[in-house]
């Protein structure tokens, strides 16, 4: 079978639009790292296809003007097809299209090519939630310039083969130039001018306060059940008020020490010979009776007397609580030595490594303390490792209910379900419980609260966030790809329930994370319901997103029963945000079929 003349296709476009990926995906059916792609692109890519029953060799040329320098002009002259690629996630790419179009059209005329030899390609439709260029805008550019247009994803291979169907179309049109009905431009009115699309709503999520909340807990004496007493020194505090649930979940030495003391273990003195001078229990009820402070169910506080300076010990405890390396550790050699001694004694490994490195540098340098520093990357690595340990410790603490002092009772019908928690931690991480304590409500005195409008699954999710600062939402990407509506609906419904629960318990950052997650995963059929929920619970970002999403898919939503049940003011708001405008849809219905 005779092979016809090869077809040369030049792929040009904006930076990071996926030009290399398109080459490799079409020929090798591969999407991966840039280094791997670069190996393929050392030579021109080739692929054999059948057109009208005949084998045709297609050669793909990646045109990078600044690399080819003068040679790119010769490449342009060789081309039969031009592919101009842009990324739909970069608004700036629109500004580069005219220049790319000018060169392609110039060489199209020079090479005596047809209009179907230039195609505008919008890439990265797999990142729809990051879209900054509307499909209608690219369609308008293609229509004005008399070229073809398609949107693709080189990552998921969506429309990649369809993009290169242009080669077949071109050959058929060369053979049958007069086949089909041709409409003259005077028969069709000008394309309606599209306004700027309404921008996608944005939400700046509050930064995490996780470590700061534990710093605040360290300063809160109210829920302290452990007191460290130091030797008297001028200008230094003599006591440090701590929390058993933190010490025992975060540090093995403190855990053994406190448990051996409470169990009156015989080997306590042998175990703790170097750690403390003495331990005792202090009655709290009588002491706090005159102050009229609600201290939960704390009746006794363990007092531990130590023969160490207050400040180094405080810095070590602060590291145990929130995993932060304080600058004060690096300002004084003597303090660094003391911290290393006690961190070795209490087996705080990461802190011991830091002080050891600081002191080694100090010993090698005459200026001593002035040169005591730790590299930023190592500091960040240690703090990140410690933060992961903190999260895992408190996750285990939540599941084990050890040292709990507060009970949350969930009412579901006539049954009650109890969840054991720690009021000291809740008071720092949740405004609902913080207000309860400030107002000295009876629930604080009774050490329990009854909740009737929150489900167990939502409560456990919120507690996991409070204890561990983790937001692990169900992934719906695979479900979307497989068309698993049931899973998408279930995950969206759970997220809406969590949104309501986080609003009720006043966990603001979690509420924002729920809104962002819903804006990326919400099924269209649930959007009218989500709009009503967002309006009822003050979720402004989610509300704006629902209006925006319905506006840009107005013809689809207009037919939905849920949309028709919305209030008239909501329907009016959606119409105001409609994009593309009604005139565009009317034009498309009337003339696109002809074309």
TrEMBL record:
Assigned keywords, A-Z: Coiled coil
InterPro entries referenced in this protein's UniProt entry, alphabetically: BTB/POZ_dom (IPR000210), P-loop_NTPase (IPR027417), SKP1/BTB/POZ_sf (IPR011333), Small_GTPase (IPR001806)
Highest taxon of source: Eukaryota
Name listed for the protein in its UniProt record: Ras di-ras and rheb family members of small gtpase superfamily
Domain BTB: 224-329, 404-475
Family matches, as PROSITE patterns: BTB, RAB, RAS
Coiled coil: 254-301
GO function terms (MF aspect): GTP binding; GTPase activity
Pfam families: BTB (PF00651), Ras (PF00071)
């Amino acid at each position: 079978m005779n092979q016809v003349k090869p077809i040369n296709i030049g792929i040009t476009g904006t930076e990071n639009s996926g030009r290399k990926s398109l080459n490799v995906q079409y020929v090798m059916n591969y999407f991966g790292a840039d280094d791997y792609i670069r190996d393929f692109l050392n030579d021109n890519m080739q692929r054999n296809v059948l057109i009208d029953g005949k084998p045709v060799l297609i050669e793909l040329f990646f045109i990078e003007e600044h690399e080819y320098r003068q040679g790119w002009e010769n490449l342009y002259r060789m081309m039969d097809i031009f592919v101009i690629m842009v990324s739909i996630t970069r608004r700036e790419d629109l500004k580069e299209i005219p220049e790319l179009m000018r060169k392609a059209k110039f060489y199209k005329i020079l090479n005596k090519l047809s209009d179907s030899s230039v195609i505008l390609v919008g890439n990265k439709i797999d990142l729809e939630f990051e879209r900054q260029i509307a499909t209608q805008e690219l369609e308008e550019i293609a229509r004005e310039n008399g070229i073809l247009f398609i949107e693709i994803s080189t990552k998921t291979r969506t429309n990649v083969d369809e993009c290169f169907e242009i080669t077949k179309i071109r050959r058929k049109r060369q053979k049958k130039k007069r086949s089909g009905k041709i409409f003259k431009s005077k028969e069709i009115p000008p394309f309606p001018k599209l306004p700027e699309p309404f921008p996608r709503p944005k939400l700046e999520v509050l930064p995490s306060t996780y470590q700061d909340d534990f710093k605040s807990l360290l300063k809160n004496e109210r829920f302290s059940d452990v007191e460290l007493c130091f030797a008297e020194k001028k200008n230094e505090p003599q006591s440090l008020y701590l929390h058993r649930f933190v010490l025992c979940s975060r540090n093995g030495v403190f855990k053994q020490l406190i448990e051996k003391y409470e169990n009156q273990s015989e080997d306590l003195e042998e175990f703790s010979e170097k750690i403390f001078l003495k331990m005792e229990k202090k009655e709290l009820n009588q002491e706090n009776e005159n102050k009229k402070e609600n201290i939960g169910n704390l009746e006794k506080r363990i007092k531990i007397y130590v023969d160490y300076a207050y400040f180094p010990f405080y810095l070590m405890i602060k590291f145990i609580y929130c995993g932060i390396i304080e600058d004060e550790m690096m300002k004084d050699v003597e303090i660094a030595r003391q911290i290393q001694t006690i961190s070795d004694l209490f087996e705080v490994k990461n802190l011991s490594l830091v002080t050891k490195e600081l002191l080694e540098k100090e010993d090698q340098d005459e200026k001593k303390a002035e040169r005591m520093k730790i590299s930023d990357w190592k500091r960040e690595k240690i703090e990140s490792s410690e933060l992961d340990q903190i999260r895992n410790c408190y996750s285990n603490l939540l599941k084990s209910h050890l040292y709990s002092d507060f009970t949350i009772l969930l009412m579901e019908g006539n049954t009650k379900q109890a969840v054991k928690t720690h009021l000291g931690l809740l008071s720092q991480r949740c405004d609902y419980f913080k207000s309860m304590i400030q107002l000295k409500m009876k629930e604080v005195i009774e050490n329990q609260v009854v909740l009737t409008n929150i489900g167990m699954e939502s409560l456990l999710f919120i507690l996991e966030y409070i204890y561990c600062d983790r937001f692990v939402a169900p992934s719906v990407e695979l479900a979307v790809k497989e068309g698993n509506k049931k899973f998408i609906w279930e995950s969206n419904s759970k997220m809406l329930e969590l949104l309501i629960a986080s609003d009720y318990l006043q966990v603001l950052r979690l509420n924002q994370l729920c809104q962002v997650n819903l804006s990326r995963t919400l099924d269209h059929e649930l959007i009218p319901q989500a709009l009503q929920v967002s309006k009822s619970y003050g979720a402004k970002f989610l509300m704006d997103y629902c209006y925006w999403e319905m506006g840009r898919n107005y013809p689809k939503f207009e037919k939905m029963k849920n949309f028709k049940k919305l209030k008239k003011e909501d329907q009016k708001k959606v119409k105001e945000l409609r994009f593309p405008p009604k005139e565009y849809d009317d034009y498309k219905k009337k003339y696109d079929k002809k074309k």
